[in-house]
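User: My instructor asked us to take a sequence, write out its structure as tokens, and then describe one feature of it. I'm not sure where to start. Here is the sequence I was given:
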Amino acid sequence: MGSCGGQRRGGCSQGDPRAAWPAGNRGCQEAQHSLRKCLESKRFFIVIDGMRTELWNTMKNSFPAAMGVSSRVVVTTPIQYIANAYSSAHGHVYAMRTLSEDLSRKLFLKEASLEDSSPSNELGSEALKKCDGLPLALVTTAQFLQSRGDPTRTEWTRLCNNLGEHLETEDTLARMKSVVCRSYASLPDHFIKTFLLYLGIFPRDRPVRRERLIRRWLAEGLFGGDAELATCYFKKLVDHSIIRPIDVSSNTEVKTCQTHGMMLEFILHKSRCENFITLSHDQARQTGKTRWLSLHPESAGRARMSREDLPFVRSLTIFGKAHKSVFDFSKYELLRVLDLEECEDELGDKHLREICNLLLLRYLSLGGPISVLPKEIAKLKLLETLDITRTKIEILPIQVIELPCLIHLFGRCKLEDASQRISKMKNFLSEKSNLQTLSGFVADKGFAQLMDHMNNLTKVKICCESTMDVSNIAHLSKSIKGFVQRGTHANDNRSLSLNFNKWSEDLLSFSLEKTCFLRKLKLQGNILSLPPFVTTLAGLTELCLSSLGKFTGDILSALSMVRSLQYLKLVASHMDKFVIRKGQLNILLRLCIVVQSMEDLEIEEGALPCFESLQLLCKDLDGLGGIRMEFLGCLKEVALDDGVSDEAKQEWEEAAKKHPRRPKVLFVKTMSESEADHQMQTGGMEPAETPATLAPGHDAQVRLLNEGAEQTVVQVQPTPNPMLVRGQ
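Assistant: Let's start with the prediction itself. The structure tokens for your sequence are:
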């Protein structure tokens, strides 16, 4: 390795990368020219560690554009957009996985000087969970607990429950505190820090749905009703590796997430100090009024609330059981968010009537054995979100549809018979309704007639009963066509999901008279053919077909006519041969096939020029078949069923090694056939969901900088410890 500018051979000085860059445009150009000239005839390996500012556009001209020898430049960063900015045409992003449970345990016990059979070992299990497999967190936490001597069970529990507080005061946790504080300080503004503190409402080990979180933010008035802005802030938290994706949809959007363990400890401590959130297990109640109240399952049943606290609560979330004093809803005067979907207490009629008197309520999510929703819900004129998916409600009062501010409605039920008020309802829905999301409803004749007048709908998910007669099918077909045809702009974010046990060709046999835009379409049932309107849709980027039978060659051939597809998912029992030819599906990025058996998948040379991800989940897969991996120049990852033969695994891995980009090959465990069929029949699985457990790789990121250099593999410790760099 060469040396430059008097630096020691084999290395360079550490510190802030900005410190080595002269101020002013002329000084930068001189430094770039000097460094480039020094490196032209040398082999070098340069690591820029922990980058948090976008300096690559300034720095990249300092490295030779073409070299006759092998050199590498590596940047480590916990921030996704910086990794993207630093990439070259042949660069790669690598996410370092956290340590396994077994390795985490061994490292923790070693640093804590504990034997595997020690009684204290059991006591440390809670601390292990909070470390999330992060080496720095494991080491510092173990050293902290070890420094306390031999604590009793009670003392050990108390120490583990207050790690956030100890982060502030204990020298043994100083390194951990430095990393966590730097991650928090790197967030761009005060607002996003506030939204991060809001995550302290949710218990550890409870994945949080992105849409649930965003709708709650909006109901709190944090974004002025701007859902796009709320989504942007959520993505920033993911981008900074502070929120960890748990489940990712087929179009790479985060569906559920968690906060890293030690970051959550920091959030909880900061929230308590600022009286932002009151938790049920707080040992010392804060001074001041309780505004955001969250009752966690470990002690929610013992948390008694005084009547003086309740009038000022703006948000109430209950996980598990709660003390009866919490359910005195008549005392809440400012409540805007009431989230009871994971509450295990049974609410009586008295509780529901009191909830209907919470006139400021904007978000209401119910769970448990509730079977009837009172008509008094009509009083909630400001309600924006109603989620009754986890209840036993089968008939929804018509008063819900008449709520003037209602935007999102979720449930698995039928609408109350509205035949006597159908004309009045149609007028209201056409002129005053703000309903945008309608998810999980069972369609009948009355519903179909009303749906045709819901002009603001952008997301529809409905179930079609197999007992529907010809008249009902005609009404529903007309409503579906009307919904599709209202998508007249390219930027309309519209989606349609239909679940039907019995396929009726008449339901979707309509044609479109004009150009219509639909971004996402999901069809689940016994699919016999591809509906003709699908191939005429503009802007259809995501299509999911989930059939109880098989996909024939005719269906697969018709798919090649859908020009704008970026994400395609096919779920069936069997699939005929699928050939993708050059010029077909030109902008497809991701393809997921989940079948029990298939004839073959063939991708011709020159086809799929943008293709990045292939998920081929079939246990009977026999090698590569008609796939030539070298034809897929942009391929990044391949996921196969873990049940394929060892010979097939080896063949795919060897093909990946020969590929210029060396795509990842993952082997995933899928659900059993009976489990998948049961979930599809009962509606427990959405059509777009894959019956597989795929581990998302959205931790801290690193991108190889390849200005004419060879590639290498580098892994980076995920936030909140972005320090460890390892070559592989």
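For the description part of your assignment, you could build on this observation: The two ends are 19 Å apart (CA to CA). Try explaining in your own words what that tells you about the chain.
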